[in-house]
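User: Can you help me understand a structure? I only have the sequence.
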Amino acid sequence: MSPRLSPQVFEMRYDQLPSQFKQLAYTDSVNSTLWYATVTTRTVENKAFGVKIGTPVSLLIFQFMSDIPTDLYMVHFERGIEKLYPEMAQGIYDTVEKSGVVED
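Assistant: Let's start by predicting it. Here is the structure, written out as tokens:
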């Protein structure tokens, strides 16, 4: 079996992000919360993805937490959970639009 390709393309590691995240808002009636972080880092070489080392980048990263499952199984459809997704998606859109964080 071949080794798995690394998805790493930035110097900053994911475990350095939690202290950077800021909560935007609750987005819907099922306790979904949207967070964001703005960070500056550099790229690392990743030949598999054609990324060259040392390019400075500014990133806007969103993190979404919800009581709604993101992996859907038939049991979720039997419970009608899929009907909650439109409200969740609209809540995400409305929250980001009102926050102005994308324009910054």
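Now, to help you interpret it: The chain has a mean pLDDT of 86. The two ends are 45 Å apart (CA to CA). Let me know which part you'd like to focus on.
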